[in-house]
Amino acid sequence: MSYGFKIIVTGDYACFSRPEMKVERVSYDVPTPSALEGLIKSIYWKPAVRYQINKIVVFNPIEFTNIRRNEVKDKLLLSSVKQQMKGGGSAEMYTSEIRSQRAAMVLKNVKYGIEFTFERTYLKSDHPDESDEKHYNIMLRRLRNGQHFRLPCLGCCEFAIKSIELVDDFDLTQIAPQNMGDKDLGFMLYGMKFEDGGKPVNNDWNDPKFSDKADAVFYRPHMIDGVIDVAKYREEIKC
Predict the structure, then answer these.
(1) Which pTM does this prediction carry?
(2) What's the CA gap between 72 and 38, in Å, rounded?
(3) Residue 218: in which H helix or E strand, if any?
(4) Which helix H or strand E contains 4, and what residues bound it?
(5) What gap in Å lies between CA 176 and CA 185, rounded to an integer?
(6) How far apart are CA 130 and CA 54, in angstroms?
(7) Which residues of the chain have pLDDT under 70?
């Protein structure tokens, strides 16, 4: 049995932010593998499963547009929420006091094909029926039924997907002529390598505490006729 999937996602807008841009949001030309992993985790995720993006197909022409977005400078602390739940403190935020407006250069009218597989990490795998087939069938059912526990997005949370479709194969004839040829995408963020490896630093899954320390991992892919063979470049990633 194969444990790979192929899906097609579409959206009105997408933003895969370049980390070198300090204030304004500027998107990469194409999605980063880590952004697509996050999208897939919105459909089904367990500590026992790790996803790997093997191929990205860019169907539509790469087009940008400029928008202005309202952002907040602070975030609500989980400790404040827990304290208020116990009857003390306050977990309120007033966006009018902490709001800032920023420009963003984002992608528009996007359509991507994503080929991915999963492997088991064996973290928190304490069920007697734990198996590859179990996780495969759960993901397959959720993709077929359009289920997710968190709305999948394309980079930023406000850029939700319009549709997601499970397919047997990609129709490469639908790739835009503008995407043909060999396009060097330069150095791109592949993902973040967290120091804790996905395990709680306090070894307590009931009240887990994770480390925020992580190193950025980069790679330099080429898009050839609209297809990025991520698996090919995985061995060449740069820390």
Answers:
(1) 0.85
(2) 22
(3) strand 214-219
(4) strand 4-14
(5) 17
(6) 25
(7) 1-2, 238-239
